[in-house]
Amino acid sequence: MTAEVRVLSATGMLGSGFLESSLERGVALAPHVIAADAGSTDGGPAYLGSGTPFFSREATARDLRLMLRARARLGVPMIVGSCGFGGGDAGVDWTRDIVLAIAREEGMRFRLALIRSEQDRDYLKRRLREGRILPLHPAPPLDEGVIERSAHIVGAMGHEPIVAALEAGAEVVLAGRATDTSLFAAVPLMRGAGAGPAWHAAKTLECGTAAVVQRKRPDCLFAWVREDHFDVAPCDPEMRCTPQSVASHTLYENADPFLVTEPSGVIDTTEAAYEALDARSVRVRGSRFRPSGQVTIKLEGAELAGYQSVIVAGVREPYILRQLDAWLGGMQARFAERAREAFGFGPGPGGYDLRIRVYGRDGVMGRLEPRAGELGHEVCLLITVTAARQETARAVAKSFAHFALHYPIPEWGGLISGLAFPFTPAEMDRGPVYRFTLHHVVRPDDPLEMFRTEMLEV
């Protein structure tokens, strides 16, 4: 067993950047692995559904180049997970192409593992019929039709496929959708660190400097993982970790402050103790990992919901603000009549979906807004029109913008212009829009069976 496993988290998300000086400080600490997460569901379903990346090629290549150079100097593995943000096959291929271009330019040679997490539809249908796909709360209804019409479906791998690739000789691993923690737990577990400290350290490292006090920018975080504890510190000397900042990170993207569910078990921080080693670093003891005995792989899917046009408008007229809901409700009802006259269809299937968010009142939280009754002197309306074709969405949006602009109120006897448009034309095309289709887990026979690994000599 290795007495200590050192892990360098390059950044909270590949492409978001980090200081070169921080990376150099991390390299000087001789890590056994460099890793970075590259994706999430945080940005919504568009990236998985469309297969397009979140960050630009330039920003992603900059981070990868520096990480690959550091890996070559150290001779240690480099791991990137959830490539391309959505983690589908297109994201893995996109990241692979960037890595291959950098390797050619830099004259690098290494063994590259590509682990794909996009799922076979026939496999998922079979598992569904077997009762081995279970919903997570809240989950949309699932049947074989949902599986078939989803543009892309991925499974969030645990550490096992990554460990298998490293044991097969991979020096650089580009993985599809993966749990953030699995990227950072793989090497410590391989090298014999305690499971509790390894997984809890991984949870702390996953978002880079999100675990520091008042993070000023994405940057590198470093952990020393041992049998019964781990230490963690930021690589930028101007940042600092405290017991509170590290402990609070178990709440990030997690419903329970003490229990974090992974494919193979649960990270239990109930008895974890956090101790300040100095002004910038923290030691954590008492973390445990409880194996579940049954691997569960979370499924994420997205389907095309239609094509969308958007209108942004401001309202400052006090008479309108006093009756805003009635005004907007009447406007949409009357416009449905106008749409049937002009287009031969109204709202609903085969027609259009029109939604209005009121920013300045409840645009962010909707029905959950506790101060929705408070209204300032102006509001912003974000109006979306979604239809099966972009041309239809645009046509409806154009008509609605003009219709809404002059929609009357009882207090006004003549023509009214109640909206202020900041842009011309008022409507803007967003193109295809997506919605999530799955929030479920699969119970496979083996933690590797849902993932495909390809080895390349670079």
From TrEMBL:
Domain Acyclic terpene utilisation N-terminal: 92-187, 240-406
Any Pfam family the entry gives: AtuA
Domain of life: Bacteria
Name the record gives this protein: Acyclic terpene utilisation N-terminal domain-containing protein
Provenance organism: Caldovatus sediminis
